[in-house]
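Bench notes, bay 3.
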Amino acid sequence: MSDTYDLIVIGGGTGGYPAAIRAGQLGMKAVCINAWLNRDNKPAYGGTCLNAGCIPSKALLESSEMFHRAGHELATHGVKVNAPTLDLVAMQARKSKITSSLTGGIGALFKANGVTGLEGTARLMGKGKVEYTSHSGEKKVLEGKHIIVATGSEPVELKIAPFDHKQICDSWDALDFTEVPGRLGIIGAGVIGVELGSVWARLGSKVTILEALPTFLPMVDQTIAKDAQRQFTKQGLDIRLGAKVISAKSNGKEAVVEYESEGAKKSETFDKLIVAVGRRPYTKGLNAEGVGLELDPRGFVKVDKNYKTNLAGVYATGDVIGGLMLAHKAIEEGVALVEQLHGEKTEVNYNAVPSVIYTTPEVAWVGLTEEQAKAAGHEVKIGASPFAANGRAKALEAATGSVKVISDAKTDRILGVHMIGPYVSEILQSVVVALEFGATTADLQLTMHGHPTLAEALHEAYLAVDGRAIHAINKKKVS
C-alpha cells in the first residue's frame, strides 16, 4: 500500500518547505521529505540556508562586527571601554541558538498549514511514486499527483584541494571553527569567500584570499566592485586576483597551497584553508539516472519556464535547477510553481532578484550593471551619490561607499541599482519594488524619502541621473 498526496516535495530547504506550506494553504494534501542532518546527527528543516549558510553566517558576521566596533569605534562615539576579549564559545552558541529557533519553527508552520513532514531520504521511482526511507531505515512508497525536486546544492570540492574538514574546509566547516585561525587562506573571492574572510579577519585572523579571475566581483557593477575591493583591502583582507591554485595539501597541522600568479609559481602555508569556489547541484540518491530524469552537463535538473522536467508530473526548483543560487529566489520559485499547479498564473521576475554581500560595508544590487546594460544595447544615463554626504551615515560612523543608478536614456526606466555602504541590503528592497512595477527615474525622483535616513543617498542618486542632486555634486548639467 502507498500513501497518496496531491504534492510530494523532496527537500526541506528554502526551495522545498515554502512550496509545501503554500500547497497546504491552497488546500492541497502535501508532504515534505527532509534529508538534512546537522553535525549532531539530528534532523533539521531549512537546508543549507538555515543550518550552514545564510543564517549562521549572518549571525557570526553581526557578532564579529560588534567585536570589531568595541575595539575600534566606540571611543569615537565617546564610549570608553577596556579592550574587548573574545568568547568564541559564546559567539558560536548564540549562532546555534538562532539557527535552531528558526529551523524548529518550520515544524510548527507545517502543522498550522496541514503539511506532513517526514525526516529521511527520497528516491524517484517513476510514474508518480517516491520511495521514502527514514533515517532509521524504514521504507515506504508515497504516491503523488505532483512531485517537486528541491534538493538544493552543496559546496564544490576541488580535486586539487580535497576536503579533510580539519585544515582544508568547506563553508560549513568555516562557520564552526572553535579557535580563530592565525593564518587563514580562502580559495575564491566570491560572496561566500569575502563574507567568511570578513568574519575571521575581524576576530584576529590574517586572511589571504586567492582568486583565479583577474576581476573582483565580476557580477557587480565595476564602479562598486572596485570600491569594495579598496574597502576590504583597507580592512586587512589580502585579496590576490589572478592567483590560480595548483594544489592544496594538508600535513595534519597546516594547509600548504601552491598557486600561480603573474607567471610565477608561489606557495603559502595556512592554519586553515577554506575552499569557497561555488556550489553544485545535489542529486545524490535521487535515482535520476534510473528514472531518466534529464540533467544538464553540470548536473543541474533541466526544466522549462514552468519548472517542468522531462518526466510527467515531476518539477524542480531552487539551487538544483541552477541560475542564481539564492534562498529568496528558491522560495519564490517554489511558491510560484505550487500556485501554477493550483491553476493560478504566477511567475518569478528574474530581472528583479536582489543580491547582497553582508560585509561591512555591505554590497547590494539588483538589475543590470552599467556594463551589462550597454552590452544589451541600452543607451544609459548614470546617477551616483556618496554616503559621505549622508547625515545618517555620518552619525553611524559609516559614511563610506556610494549608490549608483543605471537608467535607460530613452525610456527613463530604471535598469539597475548597485550600492556599497551601511545597511544597503535594507535600502535595496525599495529598488526591487520599483523594478517590479517598471518605475521610471522620474517616478523615483518624485518619491519623498525620510530625513535623516540612509535611503536619502538612494534618492540623491535618482536625482543625479538627470543632474538634479541637491546634496551631491552633479556630474551633468541640471535638467
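Next record in the batch:
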Amino acid sequence: MRTLLRGGAVISMDPAVGDLPRGDVLIEDGRITAVSGAIEAADAEIVDAAGKIVLPGFVDTHRHTWQTAFRGIGADWTFEQYRAGMHGTLRPLYRPEDVYLGNLLGRIEAVNSGVTTLLDWFHCSDTAENADAAIQALREAPGHSIFCYGAGLGGESDIGPEIRRVRAELPGAEMMLGLRGPQLTTMDTTAADIALARELGLRVSVHVHATLSWPDGRCPVAGMHERGLLDERTTFVHANGIPDEEVAMLADAGCSVSISPDVEAKMGFGWPECGRMLDAGIRPSLSIDDCASAGGDMFATMRTAFAIQRGVDGGLSARDFLAFATVDGARACGREARTGSITVGKDADLLLLDAEDPAIFPVNNPAGAILAAGHPGLVDSVFIAGKAVKRGGRLLGLDLAALSERLLASRDRIAAEAGIALDGSWMPA
C-alpha cells in the first residue's frame, strides 16, 4: 500500500512545494504523504523515476467523449457543419452500445495521454439508455470521470425526473448538469435548470460563445447575472466574444471558464481568451472539446493555447499553461482539494514523462520542454489515486484490440446508415 517514486524531476504545481530537480514522492493508500529531495521508505515499492519528469495528472474540463468513433472526420468543418454533421446526421443514429464504446475508448485515450480527471460533457442524450451507457463506460475506464449530463439539449422539456434518476446513482462529485442554454433555449429554462442543479448539489457547465446567436442581441451572461444565476459552481465553456463588463460579472461571481483552443480557433469562435480571462481575475482551465475536430491530448491543447496567446500579446508563460491544465482545471471541477498538484494529502494522480525521449532531451527547462515539444508518447506511467494504470508506456489490464474492433463496427454501421464517407470528403450542409 506504499509506493515511492524515486529520483524524478518533480514539477509539483504547488508553490509551497516548488520544483525539485531530483525528488521523491511517497504514496500511501492512494494519497501523497511526502514530497522531498530524498525519502526513506524501506517497506515501499520503489518506482525508479530517474530520467523522468513527475507531474500532476492533467484535468480536461470539457470533452464530448461519445464522438470518439468519428475522430478526425470534422477536421475541416466549420461550427455549423459540426452541428449539422455530428448532431443533425450522426447523433440520431447512435444506440447505447455506440455511446458506450465511444465513451470507453475515448476515456482510455485520455488517460493514456495523461488526463487523470475528465469532465464528460454528454449531449448524446436522446434516450435515458444512452446516458446509462455513457456512465457505465466511464465507470469501467481508468481515471476520475465526471458525468456532465446535457439532457434535453436545446429544448424546453422537463428534465427534472431524468436528472434526479441519474443523480440518485452518482455522487455529486461524479456528476454535473450541462445547461441547455441560454443561447439554445430561454432564460426561464436556464433558471429552472440551475435551480434543479442547486437542489441536487450539482455544479453546472454551459456553452457560450459569439458564434451562437444571442436572441436579444446581447450576451446571455448579463441575463444570468440579473437573475442571480452566477456563482463559483458555474463553468462557462469557450466564452469567446463576451463583452468586458460581462467577463467582470463572471469574475465577481467566482465563475470558471473552460477554453478549447483548437476548436475555437479553427471553427471561428474567436481567439482563445486565456490572457483576457486571467487579466480579469479568472484562472481559466483547458479542454479538448471534440475529437471529431481536434486532437484528444492535453499537450497539443496547451501548445495551441500557448502559441496563440503569445502571438496575440506576447503574454503568459509555459508555467501558466501547465497550471491551466492541472490545478486550475481541478478547481473548475470542484476537485482542487483532491487533485491538480503534487501536494501532501491529495490523491496520487501522477504522470511520469520520459525526459530522455529525443523530442525533449536534454530537458533544460522542464515546463518549457513540455509546452514546446510534449506529446502523448512521453507518458511512460500514469497513477490514479496511487494505482498504476500505465507503466513502461503501456496501459494495464485492457483488451484494446477487442474494444477497437467493436468501435470500428459501431462506426461503420452509423456511417452506412447515414450514407457518408469517412475519408474527410463529407462536408455537412
